[in-house]
Structures are given as structure tokens and as C-alpha cells.
Design goal:
This protein has about 140 residues and is mainly beta. Helix content is about 15%, strand content about 45%. The protein is globular, with a radius of gyration of 16 Å. The two termini are about 20 Å apart. The mean pLDDT is about 90.
Length: about 140
């Protein structure tokens, strides 16, 4: 993972605007994300899962460039490389969260080669699409 040499953070950390920070935090914690740091007074949290990070921020007067209407993040899916997509699928089901797409194997062309992955997709409470993916032997 590429990190910012000054701060040791990943070079890209998406920030998702959310309608209810408490509800979103409960969802992400149920998936196994840990809170790296937060600012409850600002409705903000920085989360991590297996080296991937994202930030959550309560909708307010910060970064909105237009009306926020559910589902948020239309046209966006966030891929998280995880050690075990099957275990993540079980975690999602165990937490009673609805799958957007059940666990399945896919093959994608990458450059001149092919990669096989195991992936599962779920939407967060605001409609952001999360894809948890594990590379398989080709």
C-alpha cells in the first residue's frame, strides 16, 4: 500500500458523508472495522480494515457539492482487499446485514493476464457499495 511519507497514512482515504454517524459506525464495526481516531464533536471517524481506510463524516456544512439524496455514492463501489472474503460474507450474514451480492468467484482481465477473485458486496446504511475481495490462485 502506498502511504504518505510525512504521516504514514495511505495515499488515498475516501471520506463518505453519512446521514447518521452513530448508525454508520455501528454498521462498520459490525463488519470488523476499527476506529483509528474520531472527533465525535464533529461527527467524524477514521476507520480501518486490514490496511484499508475510510473516513465517515456526518452531513453538515462541510464538503457537500450538491443535494445528498439516498442512496449515496451512486456509481461508486469501494473495494477492500481482505484475507478471507468467505469469512467476511459469513460476518455480514451473522450480523443480519443484507447482501447486495452473495459470495462468488469472478475472473477479471488485468493487463495481459487474468486474475481470479472471491468477492462479496454489501451496502452501508446510506447506500455506499462495499466490495470485499480476496485474490485466488490463477
Amino acid at each position: 500500500m502506498t502511504t504518505d511519507p510525512l504521516h504514514g497514512r495511505p495515499a488515498l482515504v475516501p471520506e463518505l458523508m453519512v446521514s447518521d454517524i452513530a448508525r454508520s459506525l455501528a454498521f462498520y464495526r459490525a463488519l470488523g472495522f476499527e476506529v483509528l481516531f474520531d472527533r465525535p464533536e464533529d461527527g467524524f471517524a477514521n476507520l480501518a480494515l486490514e490496511g484499508g481506510q475510510l473516513m465517515l463524516e456526518q452531513i453538515g456544512d462541510h464538503w457537500e457539492v450538491g443535494p445528498m439524496e439516498p442512496p449515496f455514492g451512486c456509481g461508486l463501489n469501494l473495494e477492500f482487499a481482505v484475507a478471507d472474503a468467505a469469512a467476511m460474507a459469513e460476518q455480514i450474514i451473522r450480523q443480519g446485514l443484507p447482501l447486495f451480492q452473495p459470495l462468488r468467484e469472478r475472473t477479471y482481465r488485468v493487463g495481459e493476464g487474468m486474475v481470479r477473485v472471491l468477492q462479496v458486496l454489501v451496502q452501508d446504511p446510506d447506500g455506499y457499495l462495499l466490495r470485499f475481495q480476496t485474490d485466488l490462485e490463477s
